[in-house]
Amino acid sequence: MKIQKAAVIGAGVMGAAIAAQLANAGIPVLLLDIVLPDQQDRNFLAKGGIQRALKARPAAFMDPARAALITPGNLEDDLKKLKDADWIVEAIIEKLDAKRDLWARVETVAKKTAIISSNSSGIPMHLQIQGRGEDFRRRFVGAHFFNPPRYLHLLEVIPTPSTDPEIVKTFSEFAQTTLGKGVVVANDVPGFVANRIGVYGIVRAMQHMDRAGLTPAQVDQLTGPVLGRANSATFRTADLSGLDIIYHVANDLGRATPDDEDFTLTPAFRTLVEEKKMLGDKTGSGFYKKTKGADGKTKILNLNLETFEYEDQGKVKVAAVDAVKGRPLAERVKALYAAEGPEGDFLRGVMNDGFWYAAKMAGNVSDRLQDIDNALKWGFGWEQGPFETMDTLGVQGVIRNLEAEGRTLPPLLAAMKDSGRDAFYHGGETVTPAGEPTPYHAPYFILADLKKDATTVVKKRAGASVLDLGDGVLLVEWHAKMNALGEDQLRAVQDAHKLVQDLGYAGLVLGNQGENFSAGANLPLILAQAQAEEWDELDDMIKQFQQVTTSLRFSPHPTVAAPFGLTLGGGAEFTLHADHVVASAELYMGLVEVGVGLIPGGGGTKEMLLRFTDQQQPGQQLGAALLPAVQRAFELIGTAKVSTSALEARNLGFLRDTDTVAMNKNHVLQDAKRQVLALAPGYVQPTPRQDIPVMGDAAIAAIKSALYGMHQGGYVTDYDLVVSEQLARVLSGGTGNNRTAKVSEQHLLDLEREAFLTLLGKKGTQQRIDHMLKTGKPLRN
After folding, report:
1. 726 vs 728: CA distance, rounded Å
2. Where is the Enoyl-CoA hydratase/isomerase domain (predicted)?
3. In the CATH scheme, what is the code of domain 6-185?
C-alpha cells in the first residue's frame, strides 16, 4: 500500500491546509467541496481554498509553486475521480450525519486499496462508519491534524476496532516520513489525546485564575515559556483557537466524560462567547485585542474580566516569573512549583490538575505514556509533557502533594507509590498505564535525551561534543545558546576530522538537536575584539573559521550537514561546504551578515559566486555574460535573504538539486548518517577549485551603478553603500582586472577575510553589531 495520490474532501481552512501539506510533500491532491447554487464556477469553493492557502500567514505552502499539485473539483462532477486516490481524507463540517452521508457516497467509488480517514477533532471514528461495509471499515482510520498542519508536528492516528493493524502501520509510516508528522496513536474516545488533556488544562487554568485573583495576562506569563510551554500560553492560545471552539469542545467533553473530569467553563468565559460574541482572533477581540497607538504602532490591549473593557496594562510583571528568568527549565519548573503566594497557589493547582488528569487518562486516551507526553509537546508546543515534568519534580513528591489535596490517586500513580519508583522514564525504560516497567521505544533517532537512544560521547567540550552514531559515523553536535559559533564549535569539527582519520571512521555528520542548527557567529566576542583593536587575533580567527568551514569539503572522508530551523551566517557557511546536505523541510537559511555591517567571511560569499557561475553555460562564462551570476549572488547576500523552507532554500541556491529534504525534522540525523555510509565507499577527497571566472572592475562598475540608483531612491542607506561595495569587490574577484580572469577559491577567501576585517574596523559596523545585540533588530545607519 503506497500513497502516491491523495484526495481531500472539504476546502475550508483545515482541508485546504491539509491539501497544501500534501503538496509540500510532493503528493498530487484532488481537493473537492460542494457546489454553491449561486456560483457559476462549480469549483468555486475548492479554488477559493487553494487561494486562501496561498495567502495564509504563516505560509501554508513551502513553495507557492507546489499549489500546482492541487486539482480543484466538486462533489457532484468529480466524485468518481476518487477512484484514483490512495488516501482520502475528509475535513467537512463537524456533524455526524453529514460525515455518514459522505462515507456512503465515497464507498461506492473509492478503490479497494485506498485508506480512508476523517480529520474530525471530536466525533468518534467508529460512529462515522456505522453501516459501511467490512472492507471499508477495515481501511478506515482517523487522522486528526492540528492547525496549522504545516507547523504543528502532531498527527493523531485513531484506529477503530475494525481498523486493520497493517493500515495503521502503513499510514503512520507515511505520515511520519512523507508528511513529516509526529504520530500519536490515540484511542477512539472523546477528545482523543491532545484536546482531551489540553482543553482540560485550559478550563482548569481559568477556574484557578478566578480563585487566585489573577488576570489573563498574569496567567499567560505563568503558563508560557517560563514553564516550558508555548509563547501563546493559555489565553492567547484560546484566542488563536477561537473561544467558540473551546466552548463547544469543553461542553461536549463535559457531557461525554465522568463527573470528576470538570470541564465547567467560568461565567466570564461564557459571557464572552454567549453574550459578547468576542471569540478571539476571528472576531478581532477575545482576551486580547490589537489596536493602533497614536504612534501608529500595534498595541495589545488586555481584557478586564470584571468590566469587559480593554485596558493598556503595559508590560505585565509577575514576581514568580522574574525570579526564575535565565535559569534552566528544570530549575524553573521546580522553583515555580514551590512558589509562594497567589502565583504559587495558582501554579500548583494547575500543575497538579494536569498531573492527576494525565495519569487518569493513561490507558484511556492512549496506551503509552510517551504518546500522551508527545501529544502535548507536538500539539500544544510544550517542551516537556506531563509525565516528563513529574520526573523533573520527582514523582513521589508530586504524589504526596496530590494526596495532601485530598485527591484519589489514579491507578497509575497508586502503582508508582506502591513501587517507590520516582520517575516514569529511566534507563531506557518507562512504565505501562498499570505502572509496570516496559522498554521505552523512541519514536525517532534521538540522541540528546538519554532515556531514548543513547550514544557514546567520544569527545566533549563545553559548547560542543563529538558522538558516535554507530556503524562508523561520528556526529559533531553543537550545544551552545542558539548554537552561536565560537572556539568550542570550531574545535569540535577539527576533533571529529582527526578522530575519523585516526580511528578509521567512515565519515561525519554535522548536526544537533537544539531549537536551531546555528544562529551564526559569536557576535559579542567579535565586537569585543574589534573594540580592543585585536586585529591580528581577529585575522587568525577568521583564517581558522575559513579553514574549518572548508574542511567539510576538502577532507579525506565524506561529510554531511543536517541543518534545520535557523541556519544563519556561519551556520549556513558550514552547510554550504558539506559534501551533502540533509535539510529539514522547515529550514530558515541565509547569509545575513550585512545586517550587522559585515559580509560572509567563512566562505559563503565565495561559495555562492562559485555555484552561480557554474550554472552558466560553458560558453557564457566569459565577460559580461557572467554578470547575471554575480548579480544573483550580490542580491542574495546583499539583501540578507533567508529561506522560508528547504524548498525555497533550493530555489535560492543554498541547497543543490542533489541535496536531500526531509519532511520530518526528527529524521534528519538518521538520514544524514545513511548518506555518509552511502558516500564512504570509494570516496575521493576533492581539491580546491582554481578556475572560478570573475569579471573584475566591470562587475564592480555595474553593481555600483545599480547601487547609486537605489541610494538616490532611498532604498539603501549611506552605510549600506559601504558594506555593498566591499561585497561587490569580493564577488568581482578584486579590482584591477579589466577582463574576465580565473581565480582560485583561496583568492576569494582571502578577499572575504580582507573585506570582513575592513568592515569590522569601521564605526558603522560596530554600531550595527551593538544595536543587534541590544535590540535583536538591524540598525539602518
Report:
1. 5
2. 479-605
3. 3.40.50.720
Which of 254, 251, 220 lies closest to 237, judged by CA? Answer: 220
pLDDT per position as a tens digit, 333-390 = 999 999 999 999 999 999 999 999 999 999 999 999 999 999 999 999 999 999 999 9
636 neighbors 579 (Cβ within 8 angstroms):
no
Q: Distance (Å, rounded) from C-alpha 628 to C-alpha 621?
A: 11
Within a 13 Å sphere around the CA of 564, how many CA atoms are in the beta-carbon half? Answer: 21
Residue type, 330: A
Cell of 22: 500534501
Cα(220)–Cα(235) distance, integer angstroms: 6
Rounded to an integer, what distance in angstroms lies between the CA atom of residue 295 and that of residue 479?
A: 41
Show Cβ contacts of residue 656 under 8 Å, excluding neighbours closer than 6 positions: 581, 611, 650
Instruction: Compute the distance between CA of residue 605 and CA of residue 749 in angstroms, rounded to an integer.
Output: 8
* Alpha-helical segments (H) within 567-623: 570-577, 604-614
* Helix (H/G/I), strand (E/B), else coil: 71: strand
What does the domain layout of the chain look like in residue ranges?
6-185, 194-439, 456-760
pTM of the model: 0.93
Q: Which residues contact 326 (CB under 8 A, 6 or more apart)?
A: none
Rounded CA separation 540/537 (Å) = 5
Q: Is the distance from CB of 343 to CB of 319 less than 8 angstroms? A: yes
> What totals of helices (H) and strands (E) does the chain contain, helices first?
30, 24
Q: What is the pLDDT of residue 511?
A: 95
Give the Cα separation of 389 and 101 in Å (integer): 44
Alpha carbons 753 and 305: distance in angstroms, whole number: 59
> Which DSSP string do the residues of 717-735 spell out, in sequence order?
-HHHHHHHHHHHHHHTT-S
Assign 464 to helix, strand or coil. Answer: strand
Of residues 584, 663, 152, the one with CA closest to residue 377: 152
3-state secondary structure of 298: strand
Classify 776 in phi/psi space as left (phi over 0), alpha (psi -120 to 50) or beta: left
Q: Are 661 and 651 in contact (CB under 8 A)?
A: no
SS3 state of residue 439 = strand
Which residues, in sequence order, are CB contacts of 422 under 8 Å at separation 6+? 391, 394, 395, 396
Question: At 549, is the secondary structure helix, strand, or coil?
Answer: helix
Mention the CATH class of domain 456-760. Answer: alpha beta
Query: Could you say which architecture CATH assigns to the domain 194-439?
Result: Orthogonal Bundle (1.10)
